[in-house]
Amino acid sequence: MSEIKMVAPPQGIEGQGFFATSIDQVVGLARSKSLWPLPFATSCCGIEFMATMASTYDLARFGSERPSFSPRQADMLMVMGTIAKKMGPVLRQVYEQMAEPRWVMAVGACASSGGVFDTYSVLQGIDKVIPVDVYVPGCPPRPEQILEGIMKLQELVKNESFSRRNSPEYKALLASYGINVN
Q1: Within a domain: 178
Q2: pTM for the structure as a whole
Q3: Which pLDDT does position 10 carry in this prediction?
Q4: Which strands make up the sheet holding 37-41, listed edge to edge?
Q5: Which residue, 10, 47, 150, 158, is the most exposed by fewest CB within 10 angstroms?
Q6: Which CATH number is 67's domain given?
């Protein structure tokens, strides 16, 4: 017969028959475990993302089993692969069509810094056109690295307060990219 082991409850106020915590923590936990990715894949990093979605690595374990191919139904933009400078405005339009809150992951060396393509036609990092929350290194990164990047993003989402998106710092960050803040 197995014995049930009780663990310590999370921080909060508890008593007989109730448990209280802050709304920031509850919403942060729910958001972090239900990120809907929008894959923006152009090269070999996209193939590694496909492997991450497959049964061996199973991204569904992290609450991201539903990739969205519509920016209006996604909250995590995953940019994977080489981004040409002509694609910069398209990437930015996709980002702007996403509803707040939205998070961005640059997957691979090309999306992070242009990779080995130091040419006139390749964007030297997507952070030139949109803000990035998590960078995943590698050329191409292994599925384990992509999963670690998602876990880092989940931790960021879980601990983000409601007021961050309305803060002057966040609005200044978007304004520095020329993104209209309403």
Answers
A1: no
A2: 0.84
A3: 65
A4: 37-41, 76-80, 103-107, 134-136
A5: 10
A6: 3.40.50.12280
**50-61 confidence digits (pLDDT tens):** 888 888 888 888
The answer to whether residues 177 and 129 touch, using CB atoms and an 8 Å cutoff, is: yes
**Are the C-beta atoms of residues 49 and 146 closer than 8 Å to each other?**
yes
Structural domain contains residue 159: no
Structure tokens at 79: 């940019």
Q: Which amino acid is at 28?
A: G
Domain that holds residue 80: 34-153
List the beta bridge partners of residue 13. Answer: 20
Per the CB < 8 A criterion, the answer to whether 88 and 176 are in contact is: no
Helix (H, G, I), strand (E, B) or coil at 50: helix
- Structure confidence by residue, pLDDT tens digits, 129-151: 999 999 999 998 999 999 999 99
Helices and strands per DSSP (H, E), number in the chain = 6, 6
